[in-house]
Amino acid sequence: MGLRLLYLIFCQLLACLLLLGRLTAANNVEILALRHEVAVLRQRVERPRLSWADRAVLSALARHLPPALRRHRLVTPGTLLTWHRRLVRWKWRQTPTGPGRPPLAEETVALIQRLARENPTWGYVRIQGELRRLGHRVAAATIRRVLSRSVLQPAPQRASQQTWRSFLRSQAHTLLACDFMHVETVFLRLLYVFFVMEIKTRRVHVLGVTARPTGAWVTQLARNLLMDLGDRAGCFRFLIRDRDSKFTAAFDAVFAGNGTAVIPTPQQSPRSNAFVERWIRTARAECTDRLLITGERHLRTVLNLYAEHDNTGMAHRSLDLRAPDDDPNIIPLPAAGIRRRQVLGGLLNEYRTMPPQLPHRPPAEPSSAA
């Protein structure tokens, strides 16, 4: 802006020097022509927009005009006073600040929301104490306003709004879930598969296959499951099942004797037992829908192999892309030591790490005596 002002001043001085060498008549004619052009432009432009440099130049030149001509100029005394007042306001202008305390940082707001969501029973003071331990000093009233803007209820309401997902996650290490899966054979015969899943590890137990499931058959399979679990059976406190009529009182009594409470899912709520429902979908997409099943024996063999593959050789998203039976302290080996194992005739593939083979060295020849 300063360079523009200097340029305009230089242009005006140069114009004045050129006017000194001209005749008075020529100057008067040019002035009349310029006045007429200005009048024409005023008819087309209601209010011209002037830059800061234009205003400075016009203000400087207006001081040397006769009083009678100043009244008809773009820059009038009132305009000059207005510009001066604007400059005074600009000089004393300050950064606008709102009333009250400065707002919370976005990181602190996100931390308050996170603590409230992850801990439904924590009230405002409890969250305030946790924030102080983390190095943030926030008032309880501020926490209340933040949660109110985030549409997060107070602690009693948040604790009472526990969903099935949060319940299953908090109780996963003590949960079992069971369900039936049906498969159509190549002869259009309907077979039922009963299986149980350990929610924490996602380990699946295929217990039986039959065409006519009954309550006594399911009860016997429950006894077999507890025998297979052995000492681990006492770790499971809850069993989730649907309201199928094949789950009789005798079936519930088997688990009650082990100290496991049976929790029936609400009616028409498949998401309440979402883990086994998801396993059924995966088993159909990867196994049963890609094979022609001939009978019970065939289906039992196929599902046993698939369950073994699911427990030992399949990466699960919920387990950080590991299999239920994987060793958490496994040491990865180079890619050259990985071997493929085909399951179900190549329908599924498993990959195992193999120790690197040392190069074969021929035995050293005995040295001859000198």
From TrEMBL:
Which residues does the UniProt record annotate as the domain Integrase catalytic? 152-332
Cross-referenced PROSITE patterns, in alphabetical order? INTEGRASE (PS50994)
Q: Report the SUPFAM superfamilies cross-referenced here.
A: Ribonuclease H-like (SSF53098)
Name of this protein: DDE-type integrase/transposase/recombinase
Q: What is the protein's species of origin? A: Streptomyces coffeae
